[in-house]
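Ticket #4471: structure export looks truncated?
Reporter: QA, pipeline team
Priority: medium

Steps to reproduce: submit the single chain below to the structure queue and open the exported record.
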Amino acid sequence: MKVTQYLKQADGPLVTIEIIPPLKGVGIDSIYKSIDPLMEFKPIAINVTYHQEEYEFRKMPNGLHKRCSVRKRPGTVGISAALEYRYNVEAVPHLICGGFTKEETENALIDLNFLGINNILAIRGDPANDETSFTPEPDGNVYALDLIRQIADMNEGRYLYEELDNATQSDFCIGVAGYPEKHFEAPNMASDLKHLKQKVDAGADYIVTQMFFDNRMFFEYERRCREIGIEVPIIPGIKLLAVKTHLNILPSVFKVNIPEELSAEVEKCRDNKEVREVGIQWCIQQCKELIAHGVPCLHFYTMGKSYGTRKVLEALF
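Actual output as written to the record:
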């Protein structure tokens, strides 16, 4: 069932979670161990991130170095299928522009359609580890908007390069990313929202936001979205601050602001156990306020860590 169908039928706030594939060579049991403690709260969907290939320079016997492609976190499609089978829950694989030609994207969509996986989060993705800025593949989608259009075309039975008689229409529900503090590459929020509106007009069905720690950011973001005619559901993205280094890592990597009140409480902590408890209590209050505001769903960036998210969900439900 589509994520949007769950949202329409719900009589209270729903839950989705997001995980990251394990490193190559690590079994899927590591994923199950992080998800099992959360299943009693009946998440409607589990997002699975996608990671494009990276490059390493390896020394050859002749002393020269060869640039080699590696994929450190493979398995998004396989994990998604396994999750649907094991938990009878919707999987939402992330589909990115980086590392894919349009034909490879089409092939991935065909595989997902065959597997009955009908929910996708369509994003551009981050630059590769050896890039200073995002570089698309030759004949690849440049922006998330292009990727959304390709998925929407398949939903209409339009495939690449050739006219197919009686082509099967896919039925993907398309989620996209939103940024309450704007995407770091956007010059301003108005520009960022204009591009978001284009994604919705192209076929995006709902929005999941980047993490934030100040609900005022989300409320203002939602208000501005509605003002420009974005009417699809907007799901807030939630992340627990769990270790003191998050004060530096999260703003640096995800370009988000840590409220002064929260950072001051974290700075007082003697160890990361105390930090985690501060993060849990902050998250509980943040979620309670969002639920009172009427958000349709809470999306937790668990990233393989279930303890804190479980404590929050116990307090909420």
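Status: closed, not a bug. The export was complete when the record was re-opened. Leaving a note from the reviewer for reference: The chain has one domain: 3-316.
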